[in-house]
Design goal:
6-stranded mixed sheet, mainly beta, L1 cell adhesion molecule, 1321 residues
Length: 1321
């Protein structure tokens, strides 16, 4: 079925044109295409204005009988209603008729044929036509019979009248020169070829001549003639010497279009005897040469300058005729001294620059594709310093004949009038003549029907016998045009070639085209009817085409139905039906939306479309009008019917993406634009300019804008690198606005600058540009001095002057040094100075802690830097001698005290007072029998603070505190005192367990608190029910501090309780431990969920999962061996707690079955069985074991081992009794290796600590005791510290000094963030 695209009013070619040809049509090359059909197009008319059906009279019935149309056409001629420029052959589907065809020349020789002695002559003439075409030739207007000529070969192929001429002499072809014409005839007429001029050319020869030497004086002009033999084909001329080398041509020496060699003025270097002109004849493929010309140049000392004079053309003006469409060549060659130059002018206007070229050193002007507008005057002007000469070319543009309207072949019906237009143009105006069947109309009888009116051939009242072939010929002096056009008069019955009952489908809103391709002669009339036989053209949406097609625009659903096409002429009347189905149009409900996404992200486009349910449909995606497909293994695109996902967006992904929803009837498209944004692209190019500014350490840098990647560039970052001083390290010179592409840079002296520029937008910086070329600024004196100048001593008798060295880019020279000056403060004596390269200077033999004035100045090969500022420094410090005077310690609470002291004398500090170091440690508890732990804490406070708060102390304990002043050298002597902390509340009890006794009682177990913080006076027990809504809490004291259990009775069996236990001192109760639980009745029957047993060879493990909310209770596990009890040791029941979740029974027999019973108060709670692994038991005989084989083997093995040991001892003694060190080490390790018990985990002895400490070497070779030689560095801290709001810094040190000071068995190790201070008891 035909498929119509939606929204296109232009119907398919087969619908609008004439009947589709089965063979190639002939098109008019010079006429425009016919206009698109519309409702206003009337039926095609004859010259009289009547339609075909009106013009022709009724024909006899015999002409309508199909069986009697033996002479009917086989080929279809253009329908009168169609374009008159198209010859259409009869469609193959029009069957049942024998067809004839007038002759048509299909191939012929060119208008001019040149043959050479070695060539065969071939004149071609081929034509088509039915009946078979007959050929004849004329030469110079006289009948020529090739078959009767000697040496002729005639081509006997069908549709061909071509012939060839062969001969055995060079003059054979010359006897056949002339103007030939071919005629092709059959019973319908005669076609005629154009005139073919045959020219025969012999072998080219240069006429013999005597060439005399050419003698000229230096500076004169000369012309060396060539004069080659004439030829019908263009020649190629070369001037060469006897060595086959081309004569060099320039403004002075030139070859003209005529082949002569022109010298504007000769030099002595032109003196040669072998100037040879070569002529190349492409037709004969030969090159001949002229006799050599001897040019003799006489030298002279008096060369005279002279103004230009034209050697060609020789007169002042000339007239030329140029052919339209051909090139025009004008030439001017001048002589003179100095050598003249040539200029071309056009007084009437400018030269057409697109078509004009200048060649041969401006001596030749070539104008391509000459038109009428090129008519007029052209001037050449030869000039040198002495004057000028000129020539005027007056160009007249003429043209060979060309078609304005070429006569065309047509199909006509009887009684119609034919008009063949032959309109030509040319300069001069061509003469037009007509022929009929190759005979000039002047030679035909005067009773013919034709007449010539304004150059057109008109024939009236045509009949089938008037079929003919006409020729229109136009000629002027530049050429000839010929056109064959035939008039074919036929009559054929109407027939509709479109199949009947075709079904057409289209969508609503589109245009449908119903085809009705009719053929007949005369041309049948076509009309479209509905079911009632009424014309459909009453609806303005329906419009017919001249070829019978019916168009229906703006289709509606009710247009569905049957339509009838009727074609009729005076021969017949036929009808077909066409079925039209109107479908729902495809619509995109929601199309993709334009978006802006960042590079590297993903984007998703969606598309929702609706389709006619009866049509197959598809949804595809396009990018920039090209279909998108998933790329194999690549995950770039993910495409589903309604989704397009693009991953890892790059800038190349941006473009227009469209969703295409289509059926076989229509297609709709929705488009969205994707912009990918990101950081800019690299700056493509840098350029340095204004290099003269380098003396002022400036340069101008310009760059090309970077690709902004759809986000405006905000700024450009300019960086530089010095490949000599800091390769591959870039420094920023600053940033400029994004709309700026150049800047003048202020540079530092003596830097090897290589620049790069990076564009920055809101998404960040892009890739940097390629590196620029390197520029070097000149050296200069330093502009800066070093900063951070300091004077400090590391010994008591020196001062080390340090500073921050200048960056290399501030050196302003290849090297830089520093001029260091110093003198004691407040002494206006002379400065001591020294020039150094390193950024420090050690001044020796100074007094202790004396202030100095210091200056450091930069120096390089170009001079000194600016005058430096004076900095105050100090010589080395000594250890402080001042002792802080402690005041009584004030207790703030049970764990915090305030320590205060008096300020020290600054003169005794021997340096800068940096602060005070407060050291304190726990000496013991006020309780008896408490363990002793030694741990030192440290607090560092600034120099302007004379107090410190010590927190985190243990209540009811004795502490020692010491305070030392410190400077940069270290700590001074300490002052100390002992103080006590008051009693506090205890910590929480360590454990609280609930054990069910009965339905109304619970037994509580606990452990005392680890931190007593005083003397325990007892416990406070509180409890309250949780699920009866009561908030009442029962509480009572337990005054016995040694109490560890308490039995609670009279509890409700249905309630769950919260129990809270607190230890007490004289300061009150401490932190509570809380547990929740209930009695046995609340827990219900003991539940051993997921209980299981596994066994080894001599043990078994029973495990269970305690039920959540089940109270703890005790029960017994009894392993009872099954089988012969005489072989198994009887195991007693073991008491187990419910909450411990597992129990391991040892001392079981291998390969034995055991029954496991869980009992509480003789009540069986659970029973299970298990079997141990290993070899089974063996019954022992009553006899003694000494007779058993295993015992004998055992004793034998012992004897063998003893013998081996004796042998080893003997070998070692024979070697001198030396033992391996490795053996000793292994022995020691083995002797110390022992298992760690659970109850000893985490404890260690002081002996172990000492052994560990003694094994660590000193990092500096010796360990100083804490005292006057101590330093804060030994505590792992720095003197420069941060302080709390109260002016204190609390630090805890766990270095080697604490371990050295720790003694006795009471040491518990150093305190640290992961090992906090524990209970001191």
């Amino acid at each position: 079925m035909p498929e119509m695209p939606r929204g296109k009013l232009t119907p398919p070619e087969s619908a609008l044109g004439a009947s589709t040809p089965s063979r190639t049509p002939y098109m008019c090359p010079h006429l425009p295409s016919p206009p698109a059909p519309s409702l206003s197009h009337p039926p095609a008319t004859l010259p009289s204005g009547r339609s075909l059906s009106q013009a022709r009279p009724a024909l006899p019935r015999r002409f309508g009988a199909a069986g009697k149309m033996a002479v009917a056409l086989r080929y279809l001629w253009p329908l009168l209603l169609c374009s008159p420029c198209v010859l259409i052959q009869i469609p193959e589907e029009y069957e049942g008729h024998h067809v004839m065809e007038p002759p048509i020349i299909t191939e012929q020789s060119p208008r001019r044929v040149v043959v050479f002695p070695t060539d065969d002559v071939s004149l071609k003439c081929e034509a088509s036509g039915k009946p078979e075409v007959q050929f004849r030739w004329t030469r110079d207007g006289i009948l020529f019979k090739p078959k009767e000529e000697l040496g002729m070969i005639v081509n006997q192929a069908p549709h061909s009248g071509s012939f060839s001429i062969t001969g055995n002499s060079s003059n054979f072809a010359q006897s056949f020169q002339g103007i030939y014409r071919c005629f092709a005839s059959n019973k319908l007429g005669t076609a005629m070829s154009h005139e073919i001029q045959l020219m025969a050319e012999g072998t080219p020869k240069w006429p013999k001549e005597t060439v005399k030497p050419v003698e000229v004086e230096e500076g004169e002009s000369v012309i060396l003639p060539c004069h080659p033999p004439p030829s019908a084909e263009p020649l190629r001329i070369y001037w060469m010497n006897s060595k086959i080398l081309h004569i060099k041509q320039d403004e002075r020496v030139t070859m003209g279009q005529n082949g002569n060699l022109y010298f504007a003025n000769v030099l002595t270097s032109d003196n040669h005897s072998d100037y040879i002109c070569h002529a190349h004849f492409p037709g004969t493929r030969t090159i001949i040469q002229k006799e050599p010309i001897d040019l003799r140049v006489k030298a002279t000392n008096s060369m005279m300058d002279r103004k230009p004079h034209l050697l060609f053309p020789t007169n002042s003006s000339s007239h030329l005729v140029a052919l339209q469409g051909q090139p025009l060549v004008l030439e001017c060659i001048a002589e003179g001294f100095p050598t003249p130059t040539i200029k071309w002018l056009r007084p009437s206007g400018p030269m057409p620059a697109d078509r004009v070229t200048y060649q041969n050193h401006n001596k030749t002007l070539q104008l391509l594709n000459v038109g009428e507008e090129d008519d007029g005057e052209y001037r050449c002007l030869a000039e040198n310093s002495l004057g000028s000469d000129r020539h005027a070319y007056y160009v007249t543009v003429e043209a060979a004949p060309y078609w304005l309207h070429k006569p065309q072949s047509h199909l006509y019906g009887p009684g119609e009038t034919a008009r063949l237009d032959c309109q030509v143009q040319g300069r001069p105006q061509p003469e037009v003549t007509w022929r009929i069947n190759g005979i000039p109309v002047e030679e035909l009888g005067k009773d013919q029907k034709y007449r010539i009116h304004h150059g057109a051939l008109v024939l009236s009242n045509l009949q089938p016998s008037d079929t003919m072939v006409t020729q229109c010929e136009a000629r002027n002096r530049h050429g000839l045009l010929l056109a064959n056009a035939y008039i074919y008069v036929v009559e054929l019955p109407a027939k509709i070639l479109t199949p009947d009952n075709e079904t057409y489908m289209a969508v609503q809103g589109s245009t449908a085209y119903l085809l009705c391709k009719a053929f007949g002669a005369p041309v049948p009339s076509v009309q479209w009817l509905d079911r009632e036989g009424k014309t459909v053209l009453q609806d303005e949406r329906f419009f017919p085409y001249t070829n019978g097609t019916l168009g229906i625009r703006d289709l509606q659903a009710n247009d569905t139905g049957h339509y009838f096409c009727q074609a009729a002429n005076d021969q017949s009347n036929v009808t077909i039906v066409a079925n039209l189905q109107v479908k729902d149009a495809t619509r995109i409900m929601q199309g993709p939306r334009s978006t802006i996404e960042k590079r590297g992200s993903r984007v998703m486009f969606t598309c929702q479309a609706s389709f006619d349910p009866s049509l197959q449909h598809s949804t595809t995606w396009r990018r920039d009008a090209l279909d998108l497909q998933e790329l194999g293994d690549s995950d770039k695109y993910f495409i589903e019917d309604e989704r397009l996902v693009i991953h890892s967006l790059d800038y190349s992904d941006q473009g227009n993406y469209s969703c295409v929803a289509s059926t076989k009837l229509d297609m709709v498209e929705s488009q969205a634009e994707l912009l990918v944004v990101g950081s800019p692209g690299p700056v493509p190019q840098l350029e340095l300019s204004d290099r003269h500014l380098l003396k002022q350490s400036q340069v101008r840098l310009s760059w090309s804008p970077a690709d902004d990647h759809n986000a405006p560039i905000e700024k450009y970052d300019i960086e530089f690198e010095d490949k000599e001083m800091a390769p591959e390290k870039w420094y920023s010179l600053g940033k400029v606005p994004g709309n700026q592409t150049s800047t003048t840079l202020k540079l530092s002296p003596y830097v090897h600058y290589t620049f790069r520029v990076t564009a920055i937008n809101k998404y960040g910086p892009g890739e940097p540009s390629p590196d620029s070329e390197t520029v070097v600024t000149p050296e200069a004196a330093p502009e800066k001095n070093p900063v951070d100048v300091k004077g400090e001593g590391n010994e008591t008798n020196n001062m080390i002057i340090t500073w921050k060295p200048l960056r290399w880019m501030d050196w302003n020279a290849p090297q830089v040094q520093y001029r260091v000056q110093w003198r004691p403060q407040k002494m206006q004596g002379a400065w001591q100075e020294q020039i150094v390269s390193d950024p420090f200077l050690v001044v020796s033999n100074t007094s202790t802690f004396v202030p100095y004035e210091i200056k450091v100045q930069t120096v390089n090969s170009q001079g000194k830097g600016p005058e430096p500022q004076i900095t105050i420094g100090y010589s080395g410090e000594d250890y402080p001698q001042a002792i802080p005077l402690l005041e009584p310690v004030k207790a703030l609470n049970s764990s915090t005290v305030l320590v205060r002291w008096q300020s020290v004398d600054p003169a005794q500090v021997k340096g800068h007072l940096r602060g005070y170091n407060v050291t304190y440690w726990w000496e013991g508890s006020q309780r008896k029998h408490s363990k002793r732990h030694v741990h030192k804490g440290h607090v560092v406070v600034p120099a302007n603070t004379t107090s410190a708060i010590l927190g985190g102390l243990q209540p009811y304990s004795s502490y020692r505190v010491e305070v030392q002043a410190f400077n940069g050298r270290g700590l001074g002597p300490a002052s100390g005192m002992t103080f006590n902390t008051p009693e506090g509340v205890p910590g929480h009890p360590e454990a609280l367990h609930l054990e069910c006794q009965s339905d109304t009682s619970l037994l509580l177990h606990w452990q005392p608190p680890l931190s007593h913080n005083g003397v325990l006076t007892g416990y406070v027990l509180s409890y309250q029910p949780l699920n009866d809504g009561s908030k009442e809490q029962l509480s009572f004291d337990l005054p016995d501090p040694e109490l560890r259990t308490h039995n609670l009775t009279n509890l409700s069996p249905r309630l769950r309780y919260r129990f809270q236990l607190q230890a007490t001192t004289r300061e009150g109760p401490g932190e509570a431990i809380i547990r929740e639980g209930g009695t046995m009745a609340l827990s219900g029957t003991p539940d051993f969920g997921n209980i299981s047993a596994m066994a080894g060879e001599n043990y078994s493990v029973v495990s269970w999962v305690p039920k959540e909310g089940q109270c703890n209770f005790g029960f017994q596990i009894w392993f009872k061996a099954l089988g012969d009890e005489k072989l198994v040791t009887r195991l007693p029941p073991q008491y187990v707690s419910y909450n411990q979740s597992s129990y391991t029974q040892w001392d079981l027999q291998p390969d034995t079955d055991y029954e496991i019973q869980l009992l509480k108060e003789q009540v069986l709670l659970h029973q299970m069985a298990v079997k141990t692994n290993g070899t089974g038991r063996v019954r022992l005989p009553p006899a003694g074991f000494a007779t058993e084989g295993w015992f004998i083997g055992f004793i034998s093995a012992i004897v063998v081992l003893l013998l081996i040991l004796l042998i080893l001892c003997f070998i070692k003694r024979s070697k001198g009794g030396k033992y391996s060190v490795k053996d000793k080490e292994d022995t020691q390790v083995d002797s110390e290796a022992r298992p760690m018990k659970d109850e000893t985990f985490g404890e260690y002895s002081d002996n172990e600590e000492k052994a560990f400490g003694s094994s660590q070497p000193s990092l500096n070779g010796d360990i100083k005791p804490l005292g006057s030689d101590d330093s804060l560095a030994d505590y792992g801290g720095s003197v420069d510290v941060q302080f709390n709001e109260d002016g204190s810094f609390i630090g805890q040190y766990s270095g080697k000094k604490e371990k050295e000071a720790a003694g006795g068995n009471d040491s518990s190790g150093a305190t640290s963030p992961v090992n906090p201070i524990g209970t001191l008891e």
